[in-house]
Amino acid sequence: MPNRWKPNVTVSAVIERDQRFLLVEENTADGLRLNTPAGHLDPAETPLQACAREVLEETAYSFAPTAVVGIYMNRFIRTRTGSDITYMRFAFTGDLGQHHAHRALDEGIVRTVWLTLEELQATAHLHRSPVVLQSVRDYLAGQRFDTRLIQADPSIYSVPEPTPHTQDLLAHLK
């Protein structure tokens, strides 16, 4: 199946402190947008590892995911290319750690902001994704799932050895 559909896997963090939520303001093809700290899953990394990494890269805060808030899918047409894209987002909450003030934020991130729920609702038209507000609402409703829900086989950390069947297929394609 050469045209198999594959959603883009992303992670995000819903982080609350003093009834405010940590967001990033970032440059996008559609202008400045607000997002919970989020990003793509990288090779050889679990969703929990990706979430901790993305929070650090985008906000300069250490973060330890402790619960899954939800798994969300959304679809849209990219402004730049017109391509149809679907995201599957794993949203976590957890423990916010040390702020590393000396650390530069990821490319495209303009700043971090702490917003109340009311401010989040008022800026919904500026959200990078419709699931930003939904994940915060689910968090506020107490929705939490054990992180053990997400399992990663050790094989993600290494290149698998070809089986005799795949070796035959590869030889046939040459």
Based on CA atoms alone, the radius of gyration comes out at: 18 Å
SSE string, helices as H and strands as E: EEEEEHEEEHHEH
N-to-C CA distance = 19 Å
Q: Report mean pLDDT, rounded to a whole number.
A: 92
Percent in helix: 10-25%
> Which structural class do the helices and strands define?
alpha+beta
Number of domains: 1
Can you identify the CATH superfamily? Nucleoside Triphosphate Pyrophosphohydrolase
Task: Based on Cα principal axes, name the global outline.
Answer: globular
- Number of extended strands: 9
**How much strand content do the residues show?**
35-45%
What is the architecture at the second tier of CATH?
Answer: Alpha-Beta Complex
Question: CATH topology, which one?
Answer: Nucleoside Triphosphate Pyrophosphohydrolase
What top-tier CATH class fits best?
Alpha Beta
Uncertain runs are none
Cofactor: Mg(2+)
GO molecular function, one term: hydrolase activity
Family: Belongs to the Nudix hydrolase family. NudJ subfamily.
Subunit structure: Monomer.
Keywords:
globular; 174 residues; alpha+beta; Nucleoside Triphosphate Pyrophosphohydrolase
Task: Describe the overall structure.
One of its GO terms (molecular function) is hydrolase activity. The protein is an alpha+beta fold and 174 residues long. It has one domain: Nucleoside Triphosphate Pyrophosphohydrolase (Alpha-Beta Complex). It has helices at residues 47-59, 117-122, 131-140, 164-173, and strands spanning 8-13, 16-17, 20-28, 31-35, 38-40, 61-77, 84-99, 109-115, 145-146. A five-stranded mixed beta sheet has the order 5-1-7-6-9. Strands 2, 3, 4 and 8 form a four-stranded antiparallel beta sheet that branches. Strand 2 (16-17) and strand 3 form a beta hairpin. The protein is globular.
